[in-house]
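Figure caption, in words: inputs first, then the predicted bound structure.
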Amino acid sequence: MKNALSAMNLKLCDNLVYARPNGGRIKLPVEVIASIHGYIQNDRHKPEGGGVMLGRYIIDSQDVVIDKISFPMPGDRATRTTFFRKKRAHQQVIDRAWEASNHTCTYLGEWHTHPEPHPSPSSIDDTNWKRKLKNDIVDSDSLFFLIVGTSEMRMWEGHRRSRTITMLKLL
Ligand SMILES: [Zn+2]
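Bound structure (zinc ion present):
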């Protein structure tokens, strides 16, 4: 576990940038990574945590920046391997950020933690992500899904029309 932790600490001094299938990039700034750090399941008693991701589509490019995330809130139910978000509280975070930013800070997707070093989506994640691609009302063609493992953060992009989900490569 010590090795996994130091691997994660290394990444804490830099932004993470992932390549999108359409040639664009999605950036996870170091400040956001640092704010997630306390939720990493590096202790066997820590429950899964998660929330929504908010940010911007950069004009005249395919680039996306994650500016802020929401954190586990009262009413969320978490166990070691499951996380259920209480919808209303997280929706309020989305609505407030949208208003405060003059309608630039928008809903991009979701994040949650996994108690494994190199996370991959569970079958429940896969079902939930596909449901979001189908039902979430957003202007964009894509939603992003981040899983925070104990030594790696991995990002997936889901395409709403085709409902395909692709793991993104770190640049
Ligand atoms: Zn999961």
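Residues 112, 114, 121-122, 125, 147 surround zinc ion (CB under 6 Å).
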